[in-house]
Amino acid sequence: MRATIVGPGIAVGTPDPDEALSTRLRDLALVELDALVAGARDGSALVDAYADDVADALTEARRRIATLRAALGGADPLNVLDATPRQRASDPGAAAADRVRTRLGAQADAARALARLSDLAASLTPRLFEADRRRGTQS
User: Which residue range forms the structural domain that includes residue 122?
Assistant: First the structure.
């Protein structure tokens, strides 16, 4: 569950659509390879499985990050600043204000999710490189 957000973000109690992926990335980043293979008969199989799982999680994060980046694109919601004060004060202008607020809120939500997933992926990527190095030395 997400914490309270000030502004037009996701309401309290609304499940975070990226929570499962975030948890997976966080959990995989906690794995210490030395501890994983300690005492194992076939440590290379464990390293292989871990590396494959990390690569899969990062691939999923990559797809989600691309989707979030796309949500940030499109027309500038603040292009209403180009309208005259009279246009903004009109009834259609009031409806535009609601659309702008909604669009900016959606962009802010996407930007927060993008930042969170990017940060988690950044902390996990070195683990993949380390696992791949170990795979290369155990072959």
Answer: 19-138
